[in-house]
Please model this.
Amino acid sequence: MAAGEVQANSFVRFENVQKSYDGEILVVKDLNLDIPKGEFLTMLGPSGSGKTTSLMMLAGFEPATHGDIYLDGRSINHVPPNKRGIGMVFQNYALFPHMTVAENLAFPLKVRKMGAAEIEAKVQRALEMVELPDMGGRRPAQLSGGQQQRVAVARALVFDPSLILMDEPLGALDKQLREQMQYEIKHIHENLGVTVVYVTHDQAEALTMSDRIAVFNDGVIQQLSTPDDLYERPQNSFVAQFIGENNKLHGKVKKITRNKATVELDNGGEVTADAVNVGGIGSRTTLSLRPERVEIAPKSGSLPNILSGEIKELIYLGDHIRTRMSVAGNDEFIVKVPNSAGNKPLAEGSTVKVGWKAEDCKALDPMAI
Amino acid sequence: MTDATIPSASLSTASQPLIAADGIPLKQKLARTTRRMKIRAFLLTVPLVLFLIISFVIPIGQMLYRSVHNPAGTNVVPNFAQAIQNWDGEGIPSEELIEIFVKDLALASRNREVGKTVGNLATRVNYELPGSRSLFTKTARKVRKLEEGPYTQALFDIDKRWNNPNLWFTLKRVTRDKTLSFYLAATDRKYDESGSIVMADELYQIYLPILRKTILLSALITALCFIIAYPVAYLLSTLPLRASNLLMILVLLPFWTSLLVRTSAWIAMLQKEGIVNNILVYLGFIAEEQRIQMIYNATGTVIAMVHILLPFMILPLYSVMKTIPPSYMRAARSMGASNTYAFTKVYFPQTVPGIAAGTLLVFILAIGYYITPALVGGSDGLLISNLIADHIKKTLNWSLGAALGTILLVVVLIFYWLYNRLVGVDNLKFG
Model:
């Protein structure tokens, strides 16, 4: 893609965007991102990873230090936030406390100088959409957190923007409400077909809601993919670690055949893994393995990778037993043992065999010696 | 009767007092367990309560009392003061009444007790009838020798001014124990010869014009403070911490300097040979002989007081603005509002509690301000508090001073009430 040329299916486009606040540290390093119309894209990352800054640049509250941002084919670098026509939901909702809910919702419509009747109809429709039809006369402070959240969403949608930005909108809610709101926002997105850019540090939230997730770390997108792809095929150990739980084993590449790598672990033993992202033979690598893909006491020869480990700790969690083991020198090796009828009870301090398939184990992070 | 007892009986069973585990009613039990805490909390506030009573409640009560209390008559001529109240006020009082007066006066002329001398009565009458002081002292000396009547004629012989019905009429009023005449004087009113209340001649009106000017200047000072303070408070609340701390020190710096020093600095700045005039002359804006009089008048008072009262406006504004997250403005902007629109519809309304607190604080401080107008006000920039001080310190007419003070207090209370109606005191935020 040549610079300045915008892809046909790209609704929002970041092109070589950089951002620095103090002229010394780049908070966002060379961001390139295309978001097609109607997509629910989540920017996921730890705090300080640049995801919120990217969102603020898109909203127009922070200027990009370098690069261009396009909205619907038009560069918006010099368009002030009020001319961008982007709806936004803020972390603490930012509902105006001195206005009623209805006045809050009418605000963007009044700015656009709509007639009173039209405003009233749109406000009522928006309230019904978020299932708060009778709350128009209340003040935001009289609503519960979940209701405030819905009003904030309704207010961002009421003026029919084609792009909605959400900056950790569910962060202030308790767990149950948060999960409920995740589905509601997801359904609103599906019903209206708007494009949503969603920022969160909660990986479960990102997995639940998104079409695609951009995992940010250190100002760079580590991986941009669909939720299942991110989980199943992480490109590096940061992504593997950040999305879901993950066991790490370190070793040296001994042999590569097609897409499989044989890795010699530091504590002895050999493991065959998917060669996702490895260097040449002899280079160091990190193996990533999901706790639920590990089998306890497999039949010998049934799996390519079988090691033995000592059980350090058992935590009973109802549907599964979280088992912390010491495997190949890693004391934090977690195995999720399903609480099913056939499984033999495990005892702390005993040694058992653990095994896993080659394709469930990813060799990542090439490091030359 | 039975109809009424049925619901009340069922009600009492429904609201049967709850019993704690040891059989004592729960309410009683709760009161007992919290009593110690309540007593301790009260004891902690005792010093403050005492302080408030001694330094606030008692002095204000004293002031209110003094502004209506009129002891001269009953102290100096007690029998006469009582007797004259039944007189109809027509012409000259009867011989018997004048006999009582003469005997009281003769007795009083020998009295040296503070507050009970003829001089006290003479001073008091003098407030109402200027120039009558000597009449009393002279008469008091002479009535001592008066043994028998007719007393009326004897008085006329001592001084023919006694043959003036208005003097006796005034005496009747002055010897009452409680009086409104100080309030009348404080509002530029007086009794005319028929005893009805009239405005003083325009030439002699002092207090109402000054009170009006005090309110206007205070309003002007408040408005100027607000105009200057609002942007400063906004900057303070939005700048990064280091810069805003520095700015905050600059705002608070005046608090660390003596009031006298600050006021004197303005004299050095604003006087005719002062820095501001020098610069204007040097730059050629005004000619040497056109130097502007900026001090010892209302201008000086306003400038110096705006400077002194500014922090009282900035701090409440700042504390309110600090609590307004930037996301409100951002939200407004993202919904399509221009900066101006977002400011007037979203930001400004949320600062109203701070504006209310700041303006109320500055206005009330300004309306009673004394030292700055006394130093830089000249005669034009004097405020009502300077007149009160005059009556307390120079003319020693404490009652008039108290009446003026009470009027000032009432004015402040009226403004407070108005404010409460407009903004609501619950909405005030001082920090």
